[in-house]
Amino acid sequence: MGLVAVRRVLLAQFASFPVNGADLYDELKSTVAILSTGIPSLDQLLDSGLYTGELTELVGAPASGKTQVCLSIAAHTAHSLHHEVLYIDSTSGFTATRLLQLLQGWTEDEEEQAEALRRIHVVRVFDAYKMLDALAEFRSNVAHQIMSASRPAKVLLVDSISAVIYPLLGSQQPEGLALMMHLALELKMLAKDFGMAVVLTNHVTRDASNGLLKPALGRSWSFVPSTRVLLEVRKDPTGKPTTCRTASLMKSPRQPVGIRVELNLGDGEQDRGCRTTFQGGTMMEDAGGRC
Fold first, then answer.
1. Residue-wise pLDDT tens digits, 71-128
2. What does the alpha-carbon distance between residue 182 and residue 186 come to, in Å, rounded to a whole number?
3. Where would I find the H helices in the chain?
4. Nearest CA to 31 among 217, 271, 195, 265?
5. Which of 122, 154, 271, 286 is the most exposed place for a label (fewest CB within 10 A)?
6. Torsion of CA 31, 150, 154, 135, to 10 degrees
7. Residue 154: which H helix or E strand, with range?
8. What is the pLDDT of residue 24?
9. The whole model's pTM is what?
10. Residue 26's Cα: distance from chain center in Å?
11. Strand 276-278 to strand 283-285: parallel, antiparallel, or no bridges (unpaired)?
12. What is the DSSP string of 47-67?
């Protein structure tokens, strides 16, 4: 075989070829699904819900509602959408009792509740290496499910990603940044390869220069999630926390940054008693009560 022929073979195997926008759009329509979170105002904020193939990050201080939103998404996905869910818990925040309470808010049928609970698979990990092991095992299981024509999981919840990464960052752990980006790559590949919606939680830190709150894990991590939502507690006139939360869009490929809505995390009937307000006066919806 001549050098020209060898060159042609190598180009065919390894070179990148341009793809036009129309073909990419057709591929997007055939592979992307939008999954409701079960929280109407959050769906509005996310432009209809969670998009498969993408990472969505929930950012907030302790008690801001991150775990509660994850539990709500898990319950709704398992019960109403009939999809399998993998829930990776790194903070011991997952409680089956609270999950059952959410399901009871949607259905009184105990068999339906039990069936939904069986669709939610919980893994507890407390360091980045164990999380990588869990993701590798999950990838193997999903591939096996696809081969056997059974329904693989469509939603992966990680609560919280910062709990396993943050201890690795700093001068004492020089490999921490590399491990963080390895985790990011694994999560993105799972989302893309298996058409999953991945939801992560992250905590907040205070900016040393201006004192404002910002998402943890630094600038490198900020490029990982496609969508970022900040959750904050709403307080009543006396300063007491309520079940209402403010959700603000910090990053999105589809919606304007700065949109803000309110959601009620008190029970299975999400958003009851909270307003849904879109910043700038574009849209305002009152659910009949204020917190």
1. 999 999 999 999 999 999 999 999 999 999 999 999 999 999 999 999 999 999 999 9
2. 6
3. 3-14, 21-31, 40-45, 66-79, 96-106, 110-118, 128-147, 161-165, 176-194, 218-222
4. 195
5. 286
6. -110
7. strand 153-159
8. 60
9. 0.83
10. 25
11. antiparallel
12. TSSEETTSEEEEEE-TTSSHH
Coil, strand, or helix at residue 252?
coil
- Give the span between the Cα atoms of 190 and 195, in whole angstroms: 8
Place of tokens 């180009």: 11
Which pair of structure tokens corresponds to residue 242?
Answer: 């309520």
Among residues 154, 134, 157, the alpha carbon closest in space to that of 145 is found at 154
Residue located via tokens 């921490």:
176
Q: What is the 3-state secondary structure (H, E, C) of 255-274?
A: CCCCCEEEEECCCCCCCCCC
Degrees to nearest 5, angle at CA 249 with 248 and 251: 150
Q: How far is CA 23 from CA 8, 16, 52, 127, in A?
A: 25, 15, 19, 41
Which residue's entry shows tokens 């999380």?
131
Closest CA to 196 of 141, 245, 129, 237: 141
Q: Which two tokens stand for residue 150?
A: 């059974």
Tokens coding 151: 């329904």
Q: Which two tokens stand for residue 157?
A: 């919840």
- Virtual CA dihedral for 116, 162, 129, 86, nearest 10 degrees? 10
Structure tokens at 101: 């309470």
The token pair that represents 110 in the structure block? 């105990």
